[in-house]
Design a protein that fits this description.
The complex is a heterotrimer of chains A (305), B (332) and C (279). Chain A has 305 residues and is mainly α. Chain A has a domain of 209 residues: Orthogonal Bundle (MetI-like fold), CATH 1.10.3720.10. In chain A, 76% of the residues lie in helices and 0% in strands. In chain A, helix 7 packs across helix 8. Chain A is flat, with a radius of gyration of 29 Å. With 332 residues, chain B is mostly helical. Chain B folds into 2 domains: 51 residues, no CATH class; 258 residues, MetI-like fold. Helices cover 68% and strands 1% of the residues of chain B. Chain B is built from 11 helices and 2 strands. A two-stranded antiparallel ribbon of chain B has the order 1-2. In chain B, strand 1 and strand 2 form a beta hairpin. Chain C is an alpha/beta fold and 279 residues long. In chain C, helix 5 crosses helix 7. The two termini of chain C are 19 Å apart. In chain C, a hairpin with a 2-residue loop joins strand 1 and strand 2. The chains are: A mainly alpha (305), B mainly alpha (332), C alpha/beta (279). The interface between B and C is medium-sized, with 16 and 20 residues.
């Protein structure tokens, strides 16, 4: 009976010392905890700062130079005020259009192959090499396109720029396509087969359609990424001070123009470079937003069982 | 048995819609489909091989002529037709190293903060902002770098580092501070590489099983001690993978670096001095390559860059794959 | 013992509808499975089953889980071979012709035989109308839009769904409830006027009301369409089928007119199953 009763005793001196030490140790540890929390929070703030700096600077410097003339006029020769980047804007659109022309079919086709042949050794190699392709520096893609398309043909062209950019889009489109196609349930495929659909028809009209929202997102995201690339275009599209929409001739592009103007010694051109950068970021932003909206809009109808 | 008595090509027609299928036309749709997607898939390895081949072939004369000294000699003189890529290689490695030194603590710090300390509602928006850094094109970083970063570095930051802090006494901060420098390139690379390391770290940290944290907390550890002692060690190889992924990115960065590094062929210990990287070397000299030998040398530089990047990325992917089970290896 | 069984199934007998007479004359065999074997890789799932099915009749296949009912069913429209390790041997005669004949196109076979699966599988990116018309798109020859609309309407009426959806044929198929979606899938299968309809546990995921309307549909289709239905629900089999086949571990244990099978089964295993001694 008495065994179960806790008798409160006065703690001995020794016990008091141990508890004292533990408490101060705990205080120290808690202090460290708070300090580290502050340090990490600071890291978070410092990380986000450059983004805010750059964007605010971009808007501040670029917005003032942005007027209708920017979008409709051609670059003026040095010394003359005004002028715009109309040719560069159109050029960028043309080049990324060409990039889609090359990158989309190969990317989607490869993605379909990967989704339907999961374990095959060829599929694994393709997947691995797709990652390798994704990691290649953009300048390397540029000199490859130069060696392969510009050198033999003897002149720069929008086409070679489109090929370089298209090649860079392939890995991401293939991966997205594979992932999205794999989410299409087998039961849907079987339902189509049971109706008498051939495999190819099932793949293209049922599976692809069901996965299309996600695939479109992947395509647009990769498009946004290559729209800002400069290095691959340096020796392929090359840039063009004049108006040109021909795909077999050198063509202007926003990133190229920004680069050339930025490193020039003329204030006027610097001003235009800022405006161009703002337009470029806006373009990338628009493409990214469309990508996100495309997924959400179809998502409700796309999530079949 | 009696199956052969029917016409092999006709399968019943008494409901009105006869289905006549030629023997040869049997699976043609499927065969074409399979062939087409296989063809497209094969384009990928073909493309990689083609890229490597074309550049290797173009750079081969340089390798054959200079041999290993191409990589070790610092003498890059297009006029005298002597090509040593050492300064460019050195610059690539140093600028990337600076970038990693600066970016890693920040990126891992942000990720730890978001996954362990911050309230849940913060994860999405702040994570989104960090990822946004990856969306800014390189040339825009360069533009900002030239007109905002360089002036600030030139005065007051670099003199501050060199004189006030006395770092000029070390060989790393000596010399005049014009602005365009290894330090500037390293800084801008750090910003550009940060989102990649942060993204991988965030995924890896979120993948650490809750049991790890709870076990530590149950023993009376503080939040920080849990992170340092239980979570980070578990996530370590994945985070290292993310760092190496960032390295892979930094090695190949061209435009921002070209605009900020000064483009000078010299190996200098001082971070305040200008330098070169492989990528910016190619970007700068390719258009005005004066001779076939020059062109070939630049191609050789490109090939070197290609090989280094592939190796580094492969290591990164292997490390990330090991921890995250492939989940963390989404291309940004 | 026998009396117990009889009294247990007496209730079943009462649940059957009044018009029990088997369907049409002439009675000819629509579908015959002859020594059908099916494998999943090395797993022998169906052991040499032979089963004739008369035109216009409803045959129910019952048996415990994993006994090969669904696998057997899927062999009847050459769906089993679409599974990576699926293999079939034997013959299945549709109106006298072997669908596994050497030069027969399986795709053509599937156009003549309709199938409805356990879970509703409407095509998510298509409207209700397009879902029903999906099978028509792969039929030979061009079907005019008006003809398609008529076929769609008729199929939806037969599936007892027309009244519920006639005002929103363009809406997404996913807006329908589970029971409605399953009836949509049935309409989709019916739209192509198949000679044989295969139903693989079609009411397994449905509420009682939807189950009832599907069973009613089967009763109405009897005579026009030959139906083979796999079901876990013995009472359902008793309610709607003319003949019932009992499968066990890949074998066809017994097949008989439904009333006979449930009141006086000839095999002890059948009796054990229907009296609930195992399941």
């Amino acid at each position: 009976m008495t065994a179960g009763v806790m008798r409160t005793q006065r703690p001995s001196a020794r016990q008091r010392a141990v508890s004292e030490r533990a408490r101060s140790g705990l205080i120290r540890r808690r202090a460290v905890n708070i300090v580290m929390l502050a340090v990490l929070a600071a890291a978070a703030v410092i990380t986000v700062l450059p983004l805010l700096f750059i964007l605010s600077h971009l808007v501040a410097k670029g917005a003032t130079s942005l007027d209708l003339a920017f979008f409709t006029h051609m670059p003026k020769p040095v010394g003359e005020a005004g002028g715009g980047m109309a040719n560069a804007i159109v050029g960028t659109l043309i080049v990324i259009g060409l990039a889609m022309l090359f990158g989309l079919p190969v990317g989607v086709g490869a993605g379909l192959y990967l989704a339907e042949n999961r374990g095959a050794w060829l599929a694994n190699s393709v997947r691995f090499l797709s990652d390798v392709l994704n990691g290649l520096p953009s300048i390397v893609m540029g000199i490859f396109a130069w060696q392969f398309l510009v050198r033999p043909l003897g002149h720069f062209s929008a086409l070679s720029g489109g090929v370089a950019l298209g090649a860079m889009m392939i890995p991401m489109i293939a991966r997205t396509t594979e992932e999205m196609v794999r989410t299409v349930p087998t039961s849907l495929r079987e339902a189509a087969l049971a109706l008498g659909y051939a495999r190819w028809r099932t793949g293209l009209t049922i599976v692809l359609r069901t996965a299309s929202a996600g695939i479109v997102t992947g395509v647009l995201v990769s498009l946004a990424r290559v729209a800002g690339e400069t290095a691959p275009l340096l020796f392929t599209a090359f840039g063009n001070q004049f108006w040109s929409t021909s795909i077999t001739q050198p063509i202007a592009a926003l990133p190229l123009q920004i680069f050339n103007y930025a490193i020039s010694p003329y204030d006027d051109w610097h001003r235009l470079a800022w405006a161009g950068a703002l337009v470029l970021i806006a373009l990338i932003l628009v493409i990214s937003i469309v990508a996100r909206v495309a997924t959400r809009a179809r998502f409700d109808t796309g999530s079949g069982d | 048995m009696s199956g052969s008595s029917i016409s092999p090509t006709v399968l019943m027609a008494d409901n009105g819609s006869g289905t006549v299928v030629g023997i040869h036309g049997r699976h043609i749709g499927d065969r074409v489909y399979r062939g087409a997607i296989t063809l497209f898939a094969v384009c990928v390895p073909l493309l990689v091989a083609l890229v490597a081949w074309e550049i290797a072939v173009a750079g081969w004369p340089t390798f054959r002529h200079f041999g290993l000294s191409f990589l070790t000699s610092s003498d890059w003189d297009p006029v005298k037709q002597r090509f040593g890529a050492a300064p460019a290689i050195y610059g690539t490695l140093v600028s990337s190293a600076i970038a990693l030194v600066i970016a890693t603590p920040l990126a891992v710090g942000v990720s730890v903060f978001l996954s362990e300390f911050a309230p849940r509602w913060m994860r999405q928006p702040v994570g989104f902002l960090v990822d946004l850094l990856a969306a800014i094109p390189s040339v825009v970083y360069g533009l900002w770098g030239i007109f905002v970063l360089l002036p600030v570095l030139r005065d007051p930051v670099m003199p501050f580092l060199r004189d006030t802090l006395g770092l000029g006494k070390t060989p790393f901060f000596t010399g005049p501070a014009y602005g365009p420098s290894m330090l500037a390139a390293g800084l801008i690379l750090a910003i550009m590489v940060l989102p990649y390391i942060a993204s991988v770290s965030r995924e890896v940290l979120l993948a650490v099983p809750r049991a790890q944290r709870e076990a530590a907390l149950a023993l009376g550890a503080t939040r920080w001690e849990t992170i340092w002692g239980a979570v980070l060690p578990y996530a370590r190889s994945g985070i290292i993978g993310g760092i190496i992924l960032g390295l892979g990115r930094a090695l190949g960065e061209t435009m921002a670096v070209t605009m900020l590094i000064g483009n000078r062929q010299e190996i200098s210990a001082s971070l305040l001095a200008p330098g070169y990287t492989m990528a910016s070397l190619i970007a700068n000299e390719f258009s005005e390559a004066s001779s076939d030998a020059h062109l070939s040398a630049l191609m050789a530089v490109g090939f070197t860059l290609l090989v280094i990047t592939i190796i580094v990325n492969a290591i990164a992917r292997w490390l990330v794959w090991r921890v995250g089970g492939g989940a963390a290896s989404k291309p940004l | 013992m026998a009396i117990d069984v009889k009294s247990q199934v007496a209730g079943l007998a009462d649940a059957r509808p009044a018009n029990q007479a088997p369907a049409v004359t002439p009675e000819r065999t629509r579908l015959v499975a002859e020594s059908l074997d099916a494998w999943f890789g090395s797993i022998h799932a169906v052991h040499g089953i032979s089963l004739p099915v008369r035109e216009g009749s409803v045959v129910a296949i019952i048996g415990p889980s994993g006994c090969g009912k669904s696998t057997f069913l899927r062999c009847l429209n050459r769906m089993h071979e679409t599974v990576p390790t699926g293999r079939v041997s034997g013959r299945v005669l549709l109106d006298g012709r072997d669908i596994y004949g050497r030069d027969v196109n399986p795709i053509a076979v599937r156009k003549h035989i309709g199938m409805v699966f356990q879970r509703p599988t409407p095509f998510p990116t298509m409207s209700i109308r397009d879902n029903v018309a999906a099978g028509l798109r792969v039929m030979d020859g061009h079907i005019s839009r008006r003809a398609t609309d008529e076929i769609v309407e008729r199929a939806l009426q037969r599936a007892a769904l027309w009244d519920e959806v006639k005002d929103r044929l363009g809406a997404s198929a996913l807006a329908l409830s589970g029971g409605q979606q399953q009836r949509l899938c049935i309409a989709r299968a019916l739209a192509t006027s198949p000679r044989v309809l295969l139903l693989d546990e079609p009411t397994a995921s449905l509420d009682p009301a939807s189950t009832q309307s599907v069973e009613q549909l089967v009763r109405e289709l009897r005579g026009d369409v030959t139906i083979i239905i796999v079901t876990h629900n013995m009472q359902q089999a008793a309610r709607i089928s003319d003949r019932t086949a009992f499968f066990l571990a890949g074998d066809l244990v017994e097949v008989a007119p439904t009333e006979t099978l449930f009141t006086s089964p000839s095999d002890a295993r059948t009796e054990a199953y229907i009296t609930g001694r195992f399941g």
